[in-house]
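#random but structural
TW: two for the price of one
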Amino acid sequence: MVRVKFYGGTEEVGNVRVTLEYAGKTLCLDYGSKQDHEDDDQAFPKSDFVVVSHAHLDHVGNLPYSQRLNPNTRYIGTEMTKRITEYQLNDILKINERKKKEGVPDGTPPGRQFTLDDILAIKSGWLSTDYNSPVRVGDFDVKLVNAGHIPGSAITEVTCGSDRIVYTGDINLEGNLQKELPGLGSLQKNPRALIIESTYGKESREPMDKQEQTFIQYVNEAISKGKNVFVPAFAIERMQRVGNLLSQIRDDHPEYEFYMVSPSYLKIKDMAYRDVDLSNLTESAGLPDGYKGHKSIVVSTSGFCTGGISRKILREVITDKNYTIIVPSGFLPENSPLKSAIDTGYAEFSDKNGAKVKKAVRAEIKQVKLSAHSDKEGLIKIVETVCPDKTTQIYLVHGEPSSQAVLTQELVSRGYQVRTPKKYEEFSV
């Protein structure tokens, strides 16, 4: 019998930590973080093994703390996930060190602040595995198959004796920019339990090619009005996808400069997207001096404008009617100034003293869902493909309550057993 316990990712997007206890050992599925709050210490399990589905921070951001709790932890994931995770954690470390020098608190509780030694320990304890190549850790047999989300992303199939549990991680039935599709056919059908993300469990989206056409349409419309364009995007997958679209129209607009701006983007592109040719765009770690002196299309991180170059740009352009801001994401967290800008017509920032400052939105804001997650129909199809006999217990994670409620209703109407776990709930499988 396997005990499954949910420490994070319950009724929320990101922050995923789910443990499987079997034969006296604990295996954790992801060890993520969340931008807009910090959990208390009990939300972080001591684990013997951590399987890392992919390198987004909401799935790996607290790996150093897992290392602090158990220095002998082994980490299982693809080699690409290992490389990107190492970069992501080093980037957080640099940002936190810079904040410390500036006297700005980084928001991390003292016991969870980490060092380069923690990152190196994770690297040395990492067991890289290829897709469809099972590995045994303790009494757990672990197999990873492609999830179609970002490079290196994986669906996890864990076998414990006669029981099998599948965890989708973040999954995209349409595949990623590199045309990698989820390897659902490599999974054994009808596992005892399926733990599946539900980010877009209540939404039906147009196919990706339609969304991409809409994005190009929005850019061309802005250019036809003589406006500048700002696109906040994520360094992994989203910036490369956006850049790939912009490169197709760049030569049609010689009067504009096209910038892809982010040190993280440059590093990730070098690791995982070397075959994406964006040579007709200007790629740089920072905005060049004088970029405002001409018409421009600027793409930068972070995608939610909660930090990085994009937050600085948003502060400058949100009140400028000569700008179009194109948000290439369907989901926005509560702490994103983009969400408040869209919902209320005001974007909220903090001044140097930490006081809140509201700015009225005068820029045009467009939203297009270039998402690396499956929508409601895609998630249902995944469940039906992996669990055709409807004997599997379905657990929904990585989704807000409203999304989980709709997806639950849809799956139950098709005869499935569905649970939306609460934090710290545990089940016998």
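TW: number two ↓
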Amino acid sequence: MPIIALSGEQAAQQPEGAALAAAALRGGVWPPRPDDRVLALQEDGAWAWLAAWRKLEFDSEVFGMPLGQAELMHAEAWPEAGALAQGAELLGGLAAEAREAGLAGLSCRVGDDDFLAAQALEAAGGRLADVSVCWEMDLAALAAPPALPKGLTLRPWRESDREALLDMAAAAFCDRAAYADRFALDPRLNHGCPELYRRWMANSLAGEQADRVLVLINRAVAGFITLKRLGDDGAGWVALNAVAPEKRGQGLYNLLLAHGLAWLAQEGASVARVRTKASQRAVTRAWSRLGARPLAGDLTFHLWFNEV
């Protein structure tokens, strides 16, 4: 079957792309970004599969290799032989194009019920790197946060906290036993995991990726939570949240979460959301106890081009 290569700007002008986005049972992002590279697999005059990919400048800088990201969309819902073969063919074409453009590898995130895309990625040499779930909590009936135990202080971050916060983020989210982050688990990327989270935290402190950073103090920094104000849909986000290893198991995560959610509610958010690893049982228990519900899950695959 023919594979058509277009820029994102060109693809956005094709009615076949809009028709595929409207018909795709697993959804799709349309239109693509103007600078995206788009590959479409055509069947009987319609697009059966579409892949949009781009280079990730930030990730490439942090990890010291050219990395990209891809998004998939397809017409068929289930991994029957014909549809699976189509997806593997398209992804083979994507790998060839991205390799020729100089990329070392790319990531691709699909819904946790998108078995067709997941199996097509596996057929093309992709490796499962992450399983995450987005949780949402209604803030209308949020109870007042509990008082802090004696000896603990919770306050907005200060410049004097910076290095401790950067170090804690780098350690907490790259701890393979405790967090299972895809950047820590992939042996090609784990060297850059601490730097990635140091930059993420630095961007949060600068107000780029968080509107509020609360710090829990017990003589020294014992934990933190970073919060993003509501978007157009009225949702606020808990972005990064960690407790020092020696302070875990004392209920401090629940304490940080309760006060962070209260701040989001004060800022006008109607719901709060968090995206966390499916393996993070303590986090999901904490959100569940507060009445949160899982919205959707996703699977992230890594595709390395010298392995296919």
